[in-house]
Design goal:
The chain has 666 residues and is α/β, with parallel strands linked by helices. It contains 19 helices and 29 strands.
């Protein structure tokens, strides 16, 4: 039975450097060699493999560069030793919900999510801090990120002061890029192959953000730079022009696989579908002749051909036939040869959708034009445009929504729910997972629930927010701090996020009583690992050894440990859990947790004597067989529980004999 310690790979987030080296070695074994610090890549061999001219470490090379970029990249590759501790009391519908609200530094949280959620997220939306010289709370200038996080948020002594990122610092763009780059690197790993990333950003950093995303995602995966009119009146305080817009930058994980949804039609657009067929379905007629750009014959010669009409039967044919006496060509009103919207093959395939329409003869032009029938006014969507100017997207609406929900102006200019609902439609279909790791007031979670209620969907969300302290002495934060005091909660932005999600769920339930979907969320908080790190007191090694004999921290619960196992073994944080009491000796029963239908079996009893070994092992084996999980299962025990090595060895041997070979202890 292997004992898991804080140095084992199973107890950390993925080692991305080791994974990259393994992939390189699999492709080019000769590329990997030994360096002064262990395994290394031989750059000379790399040059030979791909040609000297394609590998450069020269100063003059194309791309975005800044001071600290190498370290920012390294931050993304450094494993986390933290964990996420469950908070059922802060949650809504803990036992049934599939949504997550995580309180913590998003860099560490993204690392911790790598095993469980890599390649599973369909849409990532973020609204990161705009680089305007205001408070900047993601410095990442530390060695122990967990320790820094606990200090920054006042959870341990010696709290760090939040600094401002002013232009006078000389590192205005550098600091922002150093904050964003590692997070975007980690976010990309979480996206599905057909997933997309959408980022709200303003003019201060749009150029550098595009350059960074082009490097991380590839230029070929750029989807759009949408201009969003967020302030129709414009900011009159701006230097030259009154700014009315910001941007939504969209990148695909893999362009060939990317799936981008469409916007639902407005009432005005639905009104175009004014015709009804015999089945009660609505449709409209559109002219088959191409209009606008590239509408001439020379643009697509293969789309210029005659369509023949039978005037008595009002039917069409692509070939001359008896009764089909009228020949219709895609002529423009100027007399020029135009072209059809459809090619000949598509016209043959969908000829039942082509409808001739009688018109007045205009000089030498045809007496008929051809329309095509377009069905589906009820379900139909349209492509999103690159300018979003609907008044529902005004940032002022977001402020009002939060004020109505919380009863005070707790947040300044959060994104409106309508904007996020459009983004959800753009990037996430039913059953898809949406992630926002700069959650702010929680608009993304609110929008996912609202959109599910609107279309009967079952999308899930994960939102992450730093418990950034609120200062009641700061006039911009006083209302939010007072609101937290009223709730008797800590003065942090994360508390606003949670309360907004609670109230949003209740509001949606009230407004859509027939909606039976998920309006809850599980809360988790970032903390140091439940596994004790080896940190000896050199002056008293004997006491250090005795304290470390118990590998798990004494102030942690069974639930804390279970969820750390889920993270480190790559299981979803909402996976089903069951608990069963299995009788050991005559004196005692042991609580055994089955996770994911038997994929993981955990017994965290504090004492397992020799007499308990066989009945406990056989009870676990019987339950495992009853659940019959697909694939290999893992069994975990508390290492300090075993009375001696004999009990530990015997239990592992019995489990192994019955097919449970992957047995670990903590």
């Amino acid at each position: 039975m292997k004992k898991l310690t804080d140095s084992d790979p199973e107890t950390k987030s993925p080692d991305l450097v080791a994974q990259n080296l393994a992939q390189l070695k699999a492709l080019f074994p000769e590329l990997v060699t030994e360096g002064k610090d262990g395994v290394a890549v031989n750059v000379d061999v790399l040059k030979q493999l791909v040609g000297d001219q394609t590998v450069t470490d020269a100063e003059e090379k194309y791309g975005l560069n800044w001071h600290g970029k190498r370290r920012a990249r390294q931050l993304a590759l450094t494993p986390s030793t933290g964990t996420l501790r469950p908070c059922p009391d802060d949650s809504v519908d803990w036992d049934t919900t599939q949504n997550l609200m995580i309180e913590g530094d998003n860099l560490e949280v993204l690392k911790l999510l790598q095993k469980s959620y890599a390649g599973k997220v369909k849409l990532i939306y973020i609204d990161p801090p705009y680089n305007t010289g205001k408070d900047f709370v993601y410095p990442d200038n530390f060695q122990d990120n967990i320790k820094n996080y606990l200090e920054l948020t006042g959870q341990v002594e010696g709290g760090k002061k939040i600094s401002s990122n002013t232009e006078a610092s000389g590192r205005f763009h550098t600091d922002w890029l150093n904050m964003m780059y590692p997070r975007l690197k980690l976010a990309r790993n979480l996206l599905r192959e057909d997933g997309i990333l959408a980022i709200s950003v303003d003019d201060n950093e749009i150029d550098r953000l595009r350059a960074a995303c082009a490097e991380i995602f590839g230029e070929e995966n750029f989807a759009s730079q949408i201009c969003v009119q967020s302030n129709p009146r414009g900011r009159q305080s701006d230097t030259f022009f009154a700014t009315v817009h910001e941007y939504l930058l969209v990148y695909a994980r893999t362009g060939e696989s990317c799936v981008i949804g469409g916007a639902t039609l407005t009432d005005e657009q639905k009104a175009d579908f004014s015709l009804t067929d015999s089945n009660g379905k609505t449709y409209r007629l559109l002219g088959l002749r191409q209009r606008g750009v590239a509408s001439l014959r020379q643009d697509r010669p293969d789309m210029f051909f005659p369509i023949f009409v039978n005037p008595q039967m009002l039917k069409v044919s692509l070939e001359p036939a008896p009764g089909f006496t009228e020949k219709v060509l895609p002529k423009k009103s100027t007399g020029e040869d135009g072209r059809w919207m459809w090619g000949k093959d598509k016209c043959k395939k969908d000829i039942h959708l082509l409808v001739p329409r009688l018109i007045e003869r205009r000089s030498e032009f045809d007496i008929f034009v051809i329309d095509h029938l377009e069905k589906g006014g009820e379900e139909r969507t349209r492509k999103f445009k690159t300018i979003w100017d609907d008044k529902k997207l005004n940032t002022q609406n977001g402020t009002q929504e939060v004020k109505e929900l919380l009863g005070c102006a707790a947040m300044s200019f959060p994104k409106p729910v309508a904007l996020l609902q459009d983004i959800v439609q753009l990037g996430a279909d039913n059953g898809d997972l949406v992630l926002d790791f700069f959650a702010g007031s929680g608009t993304t979670g609110h929008a996912v629930m609202a959109q599910n209620a609107a279309d009967g969907g079952n999308r899930r969300y994960i939102v992450v927010q730093l418990p950034e302290p609120l200062d009641p002495e700061n006039k911009d934060q006083k209302a939010a701090a007072d609101f937290c005091d009223k709730l008797k909660k800590p003065r942090t932005i994360a508390e606003l996020t949670k309360e907004r999600l609670r109230r949003a769920g209740k509001k949606i339930r009230k407004e859509a009583p027939l909606f039976a979907g998920d309006l809850g969320f599980r809360v988790f908080k970032l903390d140091s690992s439940n596994i004790q790190a080896w940190d000896p007191n050199r002056a008293d090694l004997a006491a250090s050894l005795e304290a470390h004999a118990k590998n798990l921290k004494v102030d942690r619960t069974e639930q804390d440990i279970l969820f750390e196992l889920l993270l480190k073994l790559g299981l979803d944080l909402t996976v089903p859990m069951e608990m069963k009491k299995i009788k050991g000796s005559a004196k005692k029963s042991h609580a055994v947790h089955s996770i994911g239908g038997g994929v993981l079996l955990v017994c965290l009893s504090t004492s397992i004597v020799r007499e308990d070994v066989e009945p406990l092992a056989m009870g676990m084996i019987a339950w495992h067989k009853e659940q019959a999980p697909a694939g290999e299962s893992t069994v975990v025990f508390r290492d300090s529980a075993f009375a001696d090595d004999v009990a530990k060895t015997n239990l592992a041997a019995i489990l192994h004999q019955h097919g449970l070979a992957n047995v670990r202890s903590l």
